[in-house]
Amino acid sequence: MSRSFPSTRTVAILLLLIVGSTLSFAFHATAGDATITYEATPVEPGENPKLVTRATSNVTDLDDLLSDTSSQYQQPIRTAAATGTYNGTLSSELHIVIEDVETPYVWYNGSYYVWTLSTHRETTDATIQMRQTDPETVFTSVVRPVAKAPPEVQTAIETGTTTGPVVRPGLYHQDGTYYVVAPENEAALGIHIVSIFVGFILMPVGRGYVAVALGLLGYRYRDPTRDRLLTVRRATAVAALAVPIALFGTALFESGSLTRFVTGPASATVVASGVVAGVLTAQRRWLRLVGLTIGIGLLTTVAMSAVQGTAGLVFGPLAVFLGLVTGVVPFGYGYAFAQTASRESTQ
Fold first, then answer.
1. Which of 66, 155, 198, 281 would disulfide-bridge 162, Cβ 3.0–4.6 Å?
2. Which regions span the lipid bilayer (predicted)?
3. What is the pTM of this model?
């Protein structure tokens, strides 16, 4: 008795299901598996300012921030540090670098300063105020008590180090001693954050792929001898599977917030709609293809704006762009499994 092996097309669908399932858990894998080592370093006021400014959110290392800015453009900063105030025009190079510095303190040229920056809308005019202050004042202002710190921070201070996916860095105080809690390796922390962000983006992509794969498997089981499985109607039904799949994943594995119940399915549907675009392209239905692209973009942006407010006007188009790019894979499946327009009318 000879064995029956799955056809190439069936293997391709199963491969898409495997890839989609893997991507669906990319965020959970990146957020849960990696750990970062954090160190607790005792410091005295004035010591190790680079470490202090890196760990605290209320002090900016102005020296480091200006390291790539030409000296000729730094004159306003030097004036403010020397006289206490600069009021005038900034070069565009300097304006871009410092316009987001909103911390109350900065470290500059070997000293701490109280910092205030006032910019004038749509111009490079600004007022910079810098008043030199002592390290003790800065430490007293930004320090946090260890007793109210998260358990991971307390462990770091008690033992010297701690590990975890996310530990709140900062300057802490206990029994007359200041401690800086910061990542042992900043590069590792950056890679970890980026990997979590990428995993978060790929999660709805994976769910869109799973929807396409399951839909194709369903039609493959229904018509095992037919290679050209998809009509526009069938492809639309396949893409629509992304909604219940994404809703199920959100309810089971995520926080369950209203925002995620909208943005997740919307993003996954944009990805899965590539299968419809593939069928329309195979059938040379260009006007419908344009209508689909515009329609799915508008619906996604409106849906995200409804739950995210004005932020949805930014993240909606970004989700559409990502969905169109990653939807190339479902597009290929839609094109490969598409029936001709003449045959579609009989389905």
1. 155
2. 193-219, 231-253, 265-282, 289-307, 313-338
3. 0.63
